[in-house]
Amino acid sequence: IGAMTDFSTLLSNPKLVLLGAAAQIGVFLTYLGALCLAFTPQQAGAIGIIGGADGPTAIFLSSRLAPELLGAIAIAAYSYMALVPVIQPPIMRLLTTREERLIRMKPSRQVSRDERIAFPIAAFLICTLLAPGALVLMGMLFFGNLIKECTVTDRLALTARSAMIDIVTILLGFCVGASTNAQHFLEAKSILIFVLGALAFAVATACGVIFAKLMNLVISDPINPLVGAAGVSAVPDSARVVHMVGQKEDPNNYLLMHAMAPNVAGVIGSAIAAGILWSQLGN
């Protein structure tokens, strides 16, 4: 995933990282909701990460905290990632006015190659200090991005973002399917997981939009609140949905690259959220 990700949009407008962080509120609110429904803390943590809209992270965390729920959580996570164009637009339109959806953002600045190389190194060190439990996830993400940006390992980067990711996805699907049995999957808990997963995704989307509106109260350059919906880490689907909704209001308003900034920030945010949950609940 790191080898497929371009952090230039985030580097050109760093304040948008806050939208990716705001979207993770959905993860922790869903964790609390799952606790209220009599799930164990470990199961609640694994269910909550569905709100990050990051399939590999959801599988990683559930395999360590609640392996008995791995199948249901993996299916829910990937299902809601596929349903981004269905789930997000109504929430975005509900929480914004037409005037807000028409806001045009300033063009992003050009990011130098040195900045793109330094970012994965610096971000890895900072993120692991904040959430040591995310060391594995952050390490793989930023290593993949580093081999892409340094340009001296082009063949490795190309393999990582093409053949390797396809092979790993197939093997991951087989492993998750093989670990899922009817005894655990065909239960009422599975229905609750799907409901909580949908709630987590909806809350994460709403939190991103609302936080963008709050930021507009204190910054001089306005942010189109639609961009906040891209704070979930469904890359690049959420950014495309933001662009699509924005263009329905103004066909000449191009939000795609602006939306990619919180979108890639959401990838980092979901990994940090998973690391926090794992470090607190893993023992």
Overview of this protein structure:
The chain has 283 residues and is mainly α. The chain has one domain (2-281). It is 71% helix and 0% strand. It has helices spanning 8-12, 17-23, 25-36, 41-48, 55-65, 70-82, 84-95, 98-101, 113-130, 135-149, 154-179, 182-185, 188-215, 237-249, 256-281. Helix 2 (17-23) runs antiparallel to helix 13 (188-215) and helix 4 (41-48) packs antiparallel against helix 15 (256-281). The chain is globular, with a radius of gyration of 18 Å.
Q: What fraction of the residues are assigned to beta strands by DSSP? A: under 5%
Order of helices and strands: HHHHHHHHHHHHHHH
Can you summarize the main beta sheet?
A: none
From the alpha carbons, calculate the radius of gyration and give it in angstroms.
Answer: 18 Å
How many beta-strand runs? 0
Low-confidence stretches: none
Shape: globular
Helix content: over 70%
Total separate domains? 1
Which secondary-structure class do the elements indicate?
mainly alpha
